[in-house]
Each structure stands twice: as structure tokens, then as C-alpha cells.
Amino acid sequence: MKLKRYIFIGVLLIAIPFLVAQVVREKPDAPAPFPKAMVKPRPFNPIVARLLKTYEKELALLAEASHTPGAAIAVVQDSTIVYLKGIGKRSADGPAVVDVHTVFRIASVSKCFASFLTGILVQDSVLHWDERVVDRLPRFALQSAEETQKLTLRHVLSHATGLPYHTYTNMVEEGASLDSMLAWLKKIPLATPVGMSYSYQNVAYSLIGKVIESATGKTYEDEMRERVFGPLQMRTASIDYASIRQNPNVAQPHKMRGGKWVPASITSTYYNVAPAGGVNASISDMAQWMIALLGNRPNVISPATLQQLFTPEVKARSKNRNYGRMHRLSDSFYGLGWRVIYYPDDTLIYHGGFVNGYRSEVAVNPKERFAVCILANAPGDLADNGIPLFFNLLQPKRDSINAWEEQQRKLRQVLVP
Q1: Quick check: is 78 in a domain?
Q2: Could you read off the pLDDT of 97-106 as tens digits, one per residue?
Q3: Whether residue 72 sits in one domain with residue 158
Q4: Distance between CA atoms of 393 and 54, rounded to whole angstroms?
Q5: Using CA atoms, how far apart are residues 249 and 251, in angstroms rounded to an integer?
Q6: Cα–Cα distance between 342 and 348 in angstroms, integer?
Q7: How far lies 56's CA from each of 52, 95, 106, 118, 155, in Å?
Q8: Are residues 127 and 61 in the same domain?
Q9: 292 and 392: one domain?
């Protein structure tokens, strides 16, 4: 009888993930099947399933209250996409709905991709975190020759260049070329010595693209496609203005007019600083990337490299105050392309973005093995509060979720001697 019971339980363990997935995932509209993660899926945790149902209801309330035209949400638990859905419309004045392949601009979350790509090149010994920018770009200069010699890739990716806050971001929005803006940096007096403090940048951050081009002999865009988008099967991701203009399944950005959201044009703004704000992606793409961020794609990026990205480099205030309202915030920093938030008993890695009416948020909890992403075609409470909402709902259920996972681990040991 015990043998029959074990066989029955084993069959359930195999069937549950596929049965529950039909409930929590939206069926993709695209004819091509959604690419599966290159890892064995885990049995689906029923406590997580209930959590996701509650989360979906709360998200609907947020979307309604904020009048967000359209959005897409993904939740990954370790190696499994447990929630993937589009809600609302691509454009407030049209019938087309957001699906899991609808493309959004992800704005400053592009910075996370820049550090991700840099990390891959570091683990392949093409680059090194502490090598100097001038060793790759001899003509680059800050106003101070001494500080120019100190500037490393680590400083660039942690916004510790010493430049004043958002240097030349106004020129980015006016469409100036990256080469011109980088050359003009030598005209700007430094606010602090290099490496001394955090000061958010778009132009200076995009130095990393030029460094990558110098080191590899390929364009930044080609390196991103070959080393990140391709290996992770991010099928609709791109990093240029032409691609998003040509894609038929795109969410339109919106602006507030007369108390309501109205569609706006997709602009070329910030594609001139692609490492800082040029990535376009669907929520399906982002889900594949989050599987890698949780350490499940070592053939692309190693857990040790991810740990480098997530390690604090410089003290920095949390940009989205809603993360501080989740639980009492202990401290916050900026790592390599990521914000690092410490709570008394937890750590959250996150980044947000806003450009041209698009909002994006992504967060990773390495300890609990969850990652969440929200893409929206208008700013507001859905994008601002959607991820803190998930982790607030997760907090009281963590012990139960982990206990179930441990029970399954022990059961697998019995079934597979």
C-alpha cells in the first residue's frame, strides 16, 4: 500500500505544475509557443497559487483606481514563471488589449541590462570591474585629469562618477549624440571626487556602452542581442527606436490631459543613451530574464556574477518610497546597475524606470527566490505600488511557503533514492 501511495503522490507532483499553470497564466496570443526555461519546473506550491489569486484581485483594484490604460505583470518563483499576464489596453482609445507579448519601453531598467551584460563580459575575462575607463577610451576626460585616471567601470555602473546629479539629461531629451555629450563632460566641475558619493546619471552611465564596444569590437546593441536577448530567448526584446516603431504589438505611451490618460507618440528620446534607457521588451521577455536573475541560467550568467551586481557599492536613497512603506527600511544602496534595499530580516534588489509615458518596475528577492516585474503604458499607482503589494502579501506566508517546499524536498528524496 505504501508503494502505491508513493506512486500516486509522484504522479501528482508531475501533473500539478501543468494544471495550475493553466489557471494563473494568460494564454499567449502569438502563434509561436512561449519558450520554456532551460531548467526543470518545480511542483507548484498551492500556498503560492492562493497568494497569486489574491494578488491578481489587488492588482485589478490598483489598475482601476489609477485608471492605468494597460500593463503587464510577471512573477517568477525560482526557475518557474508562476504568473504572466497582460491587463487593459495597448491604447486608451483602441480595442487592442495588452497580452504577454506586447512590447513596452522599460526606460531606466535598461541600466540593469547594461550591468548584466558587463557582468557576462567580466566573467568571460573580456572586462574587469576595476579597470579604468581611460584604458578603454583614451580620449575620454572629466574636468579633473587626476579624477579621470581614477574612474573605473565599477564607478560608472554605481553612479559614483563624481558628476552632478543628472548631468546633461536635458541634452539627452534634446536628442544630442552620445559622443558629443560624453565629450562635453570635461566642461563640468565635479561635485565630489570619483567614488565618493552616489549621483544618478544617464549620459555618464552610458560610458559602459562605449567601453563594451572598445573591448569587443562590436556595437553595444549587437553584444546585447548576442549575449543576453538571444541566449535568454527574449524573442521580442530590442534596443533601438526602429524596432519598437515596426513592431505591430506595442503598448502606446500615455499622458494626462483633461484629467484622463490620452495616447501619445513613441519618441526617440533616450535611445541616444541606450545603456541608460534604450531597451524595449515584453513581459514574456522580462520573465525569462528574471529566471536568470534568480541564478537559474549559469550558462549565461553565473550566480557569483549576479552577487557582484547585487552587492552595495555606494549609499543611495530608495527612489520609490513605496518600498520603504512595505516594512521598516534599514538602509539602501546602489550596487552595479541595481538598487539594494535592506529590511530588518530581508533584502530586496530593485530598479524602476520612466520615459515617454512608460513606467517599469522590477524587483528580486534572492532569499525567498521570487522576482516580480510590472510594465505599464502610463505612470501611476499600479506601477508604483504593484511590486511592494506583492511582497507585502508574501511576507506573512513565507514560512508556510518554505515549509511546503521543504516537505516536497523530503518527499523527492523518498521517491528518488
Answers
A1: yes
A2: 999 999 999 9
A3: no
A4: 8
A5: 7
A6: 7
A7: 6, 22, 22, 35, 39
A8: no
A9: yes
If you compute the radius of gyration of the chain from its CA atoms, what whole number of angstroms results?
Answer: 22
Question: pLDDT tens digit string along 84-123?
Answer: 999 999 999 999 999 999 999 999 999 999 999 999 999 9
Cα end-to-end distance, the chain, whole Å:
18
Pair (9, 104) in one structural domain: yes
Task: Answer yes or no: are the C-beta atoms of 132 and 152 closer than 8 Å.
Answer: yes
pLDDT value, residue 320: 65
The residue from 166, 185, 216 where one domain ends is: 216
Give me 349's grid cell: 534588489
How far is 182 from 168, CA to CA, in rounded Å? 9
Amino acid at 389: L
Which residue, 375, 310, 316, is CA-closest to 116?
310
Please name the residues in contact with 248: beta carbons below 8 A apart, sequence gap of 6 or more: none
In a domain, residue 223? The reply is no
Torsion of CA 109, 116, 286, 79, to 10 degrees: -140
Same structural domain for residues 93 and 45?
yes
In a shared domain, residues 32 and 74: yes
Residue span of the structural domain in which 145 resides: 119-216
Percent of the chain at pLDDT > 70 equals 87
Nearest residue to 86 (alpha-carbon basis) of 102, 94, 98, 104: 98
Give DSSP secondary structure letters for 101-143. T-EEE-GGGHHHHHHHHHHHHHHTTS--TTSBHHHH-TT---S
320 in any annotated domain? yes
Into how many domains does the chain fold? 2
CATH code of residue 31: 3.40.710.10
C-alpha distances (whole Å) from 380 to each of 115, 153, 358 are 27, 34, 10
Contact 349, 340 (CB under 8 A): yes
Where would I find the H helices in 317-380?
A: 322-326
C-alpha cell at 141: 576626460
- Per the domain annotation, does 202 fall within a domain? yes
Both 7 and 34 in one domain: the answer is yes
Residues 46 and 160 both lie in one domain: no
Picking from 187, 216, 245, the residue at the C-terminal end of a domain is 216
- A 10 A CB-CB count for 193 gives 13
CA distances from 124 to 120, 128, 296 (A): 6, 9, 18
Residue 406 clears pLDDT 50, i.e. is over it: yes
Cell 565599477, residue located: 154
Which parts of 252-295 fold into alpha helices (H)?
Answer: 274-277, 283-293
Question: pLDDT band for position 42 (50/70/90)?
Answer: low
DSSP state of 407: H
